[in-house]
Specification:
Blueprint: H1 9-38, H2 41-64, H3 74-85, E1 89-92, E2 98-102, H4 114-128, E3 135-136, E4 140-149, H5 166-176, E5 185-194, E6 198-205, H6 209-217, H7 232-235, E7 239-240, H8 246-250, E8 270-271, E9 289-290
Parallel strand pairs: 4-5
Antiparallel strand pairs: 1-2, 2-6, 3-7, 4-6, 8-9
Helix pairs in contact: 1-2, 4-5
Amino acid sequence: MPRTSELSRAFSTALGKLESAVKKLDVAVANTRHMYVLGAAELAYAAALRCAAAAEQATLLARALPAYTGSPFASMDVETITAANVPVEIGFTAEGWFSVRLPLLLPKKERGSAEYVRSILLPALRTFFADRPPVRFDDCVLIYRHVYAEDRPERQRRDHDNIEINMVSDCIALYAMTDDAPGLCSHYYCSAAATVERTEVYVVPQREFTAWLEAEKAMPDEGLKLYDSLPDSGKKRCKNSSKTHMKNLAAFVPAEMQPPRGFLAPNEARIPTERAVTLSGNAASPGEAQC
């Protein structure tokens, strides 16, 4: 490890950016507290959003800082810290559906950080599949279930089409989808209320989508139980594959985060449901959801 005098100018610059971000976060927190004391609910909400945005920016800068010291272990050590503090649940349901459970709500497109989401999810997926082959679902539905706190006001729940999901879709496609062709994957979005906020993602065969809809009505507060291995019933429905597509992968994942898997981009398709919305941002008509 280099001494302080040997640290690069880039480290000093990065540290300065982090210090500036932390100061902005302090101001945002103070403003949020002030609005709360005044009893101004709407202003407190707006200040809280600015606080969340400042916290994300500071977090990204803090995660990048260790690498500027020149340590070859920086990336691995930061991933370990992230996994310990932002646990991502990954596994298979009893029905054989692949699922990822993020302990956070996905950010809005215009103000959230897709890089932040990727830095959490991709290492978790790589670790999960380190000792098992990726599963390949074809002709499937990629389901996003946004779980809000029960006491969150309805007006504070976000439109599905305004949430950043592309990065999550890309990461999951690396390990759990055969192809991203429109005829092989659809998207479905819904919301639910529970004690703890989170984002649940499911990869479900098209022919079992109605079964998932029925199961969703009775899902427990903590979500469906996830298992480390694919049930025997699920093995008959999806393909195991370790085929790599490194050319495409290199364009998506930074070199230090690249797993030995293939890259599959998100896609668009249609599924008939009243609760889905279009990816383009227009509300779908009942019975005809464009994905």
